[in-house]
Amino acid sequence: MRSDEWNVVVVGGGAAGIAAALAAGRMGARTLLVERAGFVGGVSATLPWLGFHDQRYQRVVRGLAGEFVETLARSGHASPITLDPKCGSLAAVHSHYWKILALRLLREAGVTVLMHAVFVDTVRSHDRITGIVVESKSGRETITGQVVIDCSGDGDVAARGGVAWEKGRTGDGLVQAPTLVFRLGGIDDDAFRKACQDPAFNYREWLAPYPRLFAQMAEKLETVDTYVLGGFAGVVEQARRAGDLNVPQTRIVGVKLHTRETPNELSVVMTRVLGLDPTDVDSLSEAYARVYEQVPELIRFFRTYVPGCERAHLVEIAPMLGIRESRRIMGDYVLAADDLISGARHDDDVAMGGYHIDIHRPSGSWVSSTNVRAYGIPLRSLIARGVDGLMMAGKCISATHEAIASSRVIPICIAEGQAAGTAAALASLPGRDVRSVPVAELQSVLVDAGAELGLDELERHPDADSWPELPFEETKVAPDAVIADSAWLT
Ligand SMILES: Cc1cc2nc3c(=O)[nH]c(=O)nc-3n(C[C@H](O)[C@H](O)[C@H](O)COP(=O)(O)OP(=O)(O)OC[C@H]3O[C@@H](n4cnc5c(N)ncnc54)[C@H](O)[C@@H]3O)c2cc1C
């Protein structure tokens, strides 16, 4: 049994948890990371990383996210960060080398990582969260820590500890549609690129109302290997009419990926079911059964209907169902859509975001998007309300259904994790707790560690002027489609 008292205990080793544990470990805090899988990375393993920049191509995320992607790029395991008119920017990341790097950095920082260790309960003494209970091959053990950071993506620690949380959109509680992501290899780069450059395929529907921007982007495709797709609606409809595609998705959604060792792959983000309750095991199990069946169906669709994909083959299926939204822990501040749309800054900002509000429609197809300005994420959104000793980072921070739809992307989750881990390490110093950490001290430590807090003017990417930039108030495209009842989990 482990009887140590830890300074910082992090539950969940996804993008946010890795950053939280690493930041705390590098501060010298005795840090434990608990992960139920046999690797770290969570959903971030197998996906491209979006949103280092806002839509004006200002850099909003640096720090650990920058360090990770730049380290991987140096060894050929990530693409350069490439600009994108809707997502700001993106980088293709080699999933396995990301897991290797993350684990190595955690060990170098002195973090103890418990693998195949499942968080099962929260230890609460009056209004303080004092530890967690973990179940593993070694049995059940109680772990005490001065600060616990919930990076489970589901707000598990909060829920078990009687801390307030919300789930889904106001009104019906439905969460964004989940997707099991998979990657295709064997894409004929030239043929695929030509199709994307052909306005008839409408590969990026956001650009369709702006032919000049589309032409600019089509030219860019000659020079970049990594780019985002959201379109090809006509091709999807053709397959549906022919009875070849029943997946409840009306667009090709994905990213053309390219790293030195994994050229010409396609990340496909099209499987989906509606009505998932991500905290209900029966609902989850039924969702898995359905989305796995959709993978071969989609591969057949790509090989038959999409130029350049005739010889595409399955390379990898993401290690877990991609749940875009689950419990959101209520904190001292609830980040809301208005904050994002107005580009609000707060005195206690400890991270930033600039990715659009990207809602994979809970009861429809494809996405609804609302543009945002570079916004600050306050420390108060990372501190659980009504208790001491509990923080959170990643997709379960204190935010609304709409705000999470922006802050959930990987670089922003990493920035939140870095902030929470650093704050927790400072909070574990004698005589302190999470609410008494001096904000100026925390911000100064974060800036010294390379984080972007927007304290000075944000830097525009050097190539920004030559890339298409969408207007803030965009022409709306693509109304919600009617989805067959069979797409719903019962
Ligand atoms: C389908 C999909 C596609 C996406 N595409 C992109 C994209 O292209 N680019 C991008 O930047 N973002 C994308 N996102 C968003 C982004 O990937 C996630 O929101 C982000 O990775 C979440 O990170 P996280 O650390 O908060 O959560 P997670 O990655 O979910 O990590 C949570 C971790 O906690 C562990 N855990 C959970 N419960 C327990 C427990 N009880 N005990 C122990 N461990 C536990 C899990 O195993 C996991 O490792 C996508 C999301 C989805 C769902």
From TrEMBL:
Annotated protein name in UniProt: FAD dependent oxidoreductase
TM regions (residue ranges): 6-25
SUPFAM superfamilies listed in its UniProt record: FAD/NAD(P)-binding domain
GO MF annotation list: 4 iron, 4 sulfur cluster binding; metal ion binding; oxidoreductase activity
PANTHER family: COB--COM HETERODISULFIDE REDUCTASE IRON-SULFUR SUBUNIT A, FERREDOXIN:COB-COM HETERODISULFIDE REDUCTASE SUBUNIT A
InterPro entries xref list: FAD/NAD-bd_sf (IPR036188), HdrA-like (IPR039650)
Record bears the keyword Metal-binding: yes
The entry's keywords: 4Fe-4S, Iron, Iron-sulfur, Membrane, Metal-binding, Oxidoreductase, Transmembrane, Transmembrane helix
